[in-house]
Write a structure and sequence with these properties.
The protein is α/β, with parallel strands linked by helices and 438 residues long. It has helices spanning 11-22, 34-41, 52-61, 71-76, 98-109, 127-138, 159-164, 176-185, 187-191, 201-232, 236-244, 265-278, 284-307, 335-345, 358-362, 374-378, 391-394, 398-404, 419-424, and strands spanning 3-7, 26-30, 65-68, 80-83, 115-119, 145-149, 169-172, 196-199, 316-320, 349-353, 369-370, 383-386, 409-412, 428-430. Helix content is 45%, strand content 13%. Bound molecules: nicotinamide-adenine-dinucleotide (NAD).
Length: 438
């Protein structure tokens, strides 16, 4: 059991803090966002993440998990400091590391005893070295510390389960002492025989980018195959299924759709491309995946407009689903943002609905109408665009949908509606890569 501070209490920091406490550690989650910490102290969870409330509550109750805005104290009182702050897209696609560096500075100023500084945030290769030099520059004593790169792979929507049962743990470190302590931190996972990969710091940093970029590549690849399917009259789902049966490929991440979004793939692919170009070792495949993804998002709006015969001005379009995928309230880089913007640019009227993500989308589009149910959103709508694969949209009652709309016209960017049912009910519709079956 270790005394741990997790700095940054967002999707990764909060789930990691609660998970590390569940492993038996004593954890304080620290953040500069006062309102977030206030909510957490009041027993409320600031994000929607299935199962998170239960893990947080159970560890707060057992006094293993607490929250603070006093980050300096959290550092001084802990032996292991996890950095989990955001690393958003910055200038020219590079990762913006200002939050990471300011935390490193603060750690240096508060280094009062031996500590492990461990980065969970996704940071470009070489950042570990910079963090070490910032801490060294700011510490004013000869207290020692070790640095560990421990990239996080949890998926929003399944974050708790991913953290408590990870596929593997990556520990990039040079010090045996640090590895020993990290083994204690994750001792529950050792008992479960979770693979632990010990490596050096640049390798650990590279693993995270290589991993995310590969998944993004897979998505862009199947989206382009889907577009080809439309042109040749093939069904992308059968193509993807057959590809997935090949053990060398795996069926995961071969689902066509409106293009990837979220807080990771878009910025991580750009950061990797930017870094590789700087190092004169360009990763062209990933650069192409980014371009494909940009086009795929625009292509969805083009599909909708084509279905509507380009008569958009003054027409009402119900956008169902705002988060970048189901089971999260995160709208960062969501395909719905591009869709809404394109509709508004053409003079269309948007009525949006999402079971959890509407509040986050209001920060992007404060003036559009938000409905409390899908039925309210589609009422008298000229068209519907399904942007997220929420279960409630998979189970849409198409007869009810038709009866509520002004005209039965649907763009299904997630391929979740039944083509035979849409056809039988006389819907005008489109989807991604399987139009031939209409
Ligand atoms: P987030 O935006 O949800 O949370 C970041 C938190 O850091 C916020 O609460 C913010 O207030 C806090 N913060 C910012 N500056 C701070 C500072 N100086 N001191 C203390 N707190 C500060 O971000 P996230 O989605 O949790 O991502 C965090 C990191 O983890 C990123 O590098 C991301 O790429 C990586 N990551 C994210 C996911 C994911 O699914 N979200 C998965 C794996 C890795």
């Amino acid at each position: 059991m270790k005394n741990i501070a997790v700095i940054g209490t967002g999707y990764v920091g909060l789930v990691s803090g609660a998970g590390l406490a569940d492993f038996g550690n004593q954890v304080v989650c620290a953040d500069i966002d006062k309102s977030k910490i206030k909510l957490l102290k009041a027993g409320k969870i600031p994000i929607f993440e299935p199962g998170l409330k239960e893990v947080v509550n159970r560890n707060v109750k057992s006094n293993r998990l607490s929250f603070t805005t006093d980050i300096s104290k959290a550092v001084r009182d802990s032996e292991v400091i996890f950095i989990g702050v955001g690393t958003p897209e910055g200038k020219d696609g590079e990762a913006d590391l200002s939050a990471v560096y300011s935390v490193a500075e603060m750690i240096g100023n508060n280094l009062n005893s031996y500590k492990i500084i461990c980065t969970k945030s996704t940071v470009p290769i070489g950042t570990g070295e910079k963090i070490v030099s910032i801490i060294n520059k700011h510490k004013n004593n000869d207290v020692e510390f070790d640095y560990v790169s421990n990239p996080e792979f949890l998926r929003e929507g399944a974050a708790v389960q991913d953290f408590l049962r990870p596929n593997r743990i990556i520990l990039g470190a040079t010090s045996q002492k640090a590895l020993q302590i990290m083994q204690d931190v994750y001792s529950s996972l050792y008992i479960n025989e979770t693979p632990i990969i010990h490596t050096n710091i640049p390798t650990a940093e590279t693993i995270k980018y290589a991993n995310n970029a590969f998944l993004a590549l897979k998505i862009s690849y199947i989206n382009e195959i889907a577009n080809l399917c439309e042109a040749v009259g093939a069904d992308v789902h059968i193509v993807a299924k057959a590809m997935g049966n090949d053990g060398r490929i795996s069926p995961k991440f071969l689902h066509p759709g409106p293009g990837f979004g979220g807080s990771c793939f878009p910025k991580d692919t750009k950061a990797l491309v930017s870094l590789s170009e700087k190092l004169n070792e360009p990763i062209n495949t990933v650069a192409a995946a980014i371009t494909t993804n940009y086009r795929q998002k625009k292509r969805m709006a083009e599909k909708l407009f084509k279905l509507m015969e380009y008569e958009i001005k003054g027409k009402t379009i119900a956008v169902l689903g705002l988060s970048f995928k189901q089971m999260t309230d995160d709208v960062r880089e969501s395909a719905a943002i591009d869709m809404i913007q394109c509709i508004l640019d053409r003079g269309g009227i948007v009525k949006a609905y999402d079971p959890f993500a509407a509040d986050n989308m209001k920060k992007h589009f404060p003036s559009i109408a938000y409905s409390v149910s899908w039925q309210a959103a589609v009422k008298n709508a000229d068209a519907v665009a399904i942007m997220t694969e929420w279960h409630e949209f998979r189970a849409l009652d198409l007869s009810e949908l038709k009866s509520l709309m002004k005209s039965p016209l649907v763009l299904d960017t997630r391929n979740i509606l039944s083509i035979p049912d849409l056809t039988a009910l006389g819907f005008k519709f489109d989807n991604v890569g399987r139009k031939a079956l209409k």
